[in-house]
Amino acid sequence: MKADAIKIVDGVYWVGVIDWDIRDYHGYNLDGTTYNTYLIFSEDKVTLIDNVFPGFFPQSWGRIEDAFKKEGKNEVKIDVVIQNHVENDHSGTLIDIIKKFPEVEVYCSTRAVNGLKNYFPSLKDFNFNLVKTGDSIEVGGKTFSFIDAPMLHWPDSMFTFLNDDGILFSNDAFGQHLCRSSRLDTDIDEFEILHAAQKFYANLITPSSKMVLMKVDELNKLCLTDKIKLIAPSHGQIWTNPEKIISKYSSWASGEVKDKITFIYDTMHHSTQKMAHALAEGVMSEGFEVRTYFLHYDQRSDAATDVLDSKAVVIGSPTMMNNPFPSLGDIIYYFNCLNFKATGYTKKAVVIGSKGWGGGAGKKLATDLEASGFEIFENYDILNIPHKDELDKCYEIGKELAKSLK
Question: Domain holding 116: CATH number?
Answer without folding.
Answer: 3.60.15.10
